[in-house]
Amino acid sequence: MTLRSVVTRSAAPARALAGPSVVRPRLTPTLITRAASSGPRRPARPLTPRAPEKPSIPFEHVHVVDATTNTLGPLVSLASVVSALDPATHAVWLVSSSPPVVRVLDLKDESAKSRAHETKLKLSRRLAPEDKEVQVSWGAAGGDLAHKAAAARDALARGDRVTLIFAPRAGQPEPAPRRRAEIVKMFEDALEHVGQRWRDDEAKGAMLVGKWKSKDEGSVDRKKKVVDGQAEKKKAKQEEKEARRKKEEERARKAEEARRAAAERA
Predict the structure, then answer these.
(1) Is there a contact between 27 and 113 (Cβ–Cβ < 8 Å)?
(2) Of 118, 106, 119, 103, nearest in space to 70 by CA
């Protein structure tokens, strides 16, 4: 089998566990490729069959880890391992230097694992609560207070954390304690169904700071909501893509009919 290039990867040396024949490598790869030439580019030459190039693994002979049993095979020529591979679908991964041990990886499987890992990271980021800040003026009108309370409630319902900052506007007199208590009670009534305090309110002069978190924070229901939301978005994108495809097909069909009709008239 003729190969033009071989993709190889290397990882930090790993120790053998559970006996001398079992290898459990730390998969922290470094992609090894051929260095590009720094000189002037030469004219392209016709492609001719040639022997596969030696990969950038500094060993003539290596042990290959059996993908099924996870045990070491006998010492074999690295060239023989490479020559049996299709570089478009498989890669050689150096997992240990002493002794020299390699794995043969299925690039399709590795790509699927990478996508699954990225999906998991995205889900973790979506589940992580964000910190929102809502500033409320003691002298705000009733409509403005209701709007701020609704914004805080919506943030908590999404699973975020909310910091409420009550403070007087510059140049305005500080409201009476009774009025301040009424405003705080209004926000408590608006938020208590979706959130709860995770820290006692902190008074700083005329300013009051309240810390609230969602009741769904870290819950299974929140995770389900996020997963379902992602699934709905994905479905909507697919439906939109399919609609565009059908529209293009219909446009092409009408254009072809018009062309045929014009040809018949001619």
Answers:
(1) no
(2) 103
